[in-house]
What we know:
By secondary structure, the chain is an alpha+beta fold. The protein has helices spanning 50-69, 77-98, and strands spanning 11-14, 17-24, 33-36, 41-45.
Amino acid sequence: MRHYKAGTVKFISVMGQWWRVVWEPLGHDGLHGQLIIDTKIIKINSYDNAEQQAATLLHELFHAILFTSGQGFDLESGTEEALVRALEHGLAPVVKIIGLEDE
């Protein structure tokens, strides 16, 4: 299995569609990431530590999966966010196992 460190992933395929991953400062006000659907860009806050960045990438990927699959259109905004957060918090510990974060 190939391991990636946070900040090194530049593109990622989601259900056959390529999304660009941009690691940039998004401030210190709690914004960890952002999904820009129109341009297929995932922004990750470069101010965050590697563990938070990896969890945020996972979180934004869940949003991208829901959008790409068409299922996101069937969910209300609050419901989608609750579902994505549950998946993120449930799977974020796996990030340590697969080596996405710095140790």
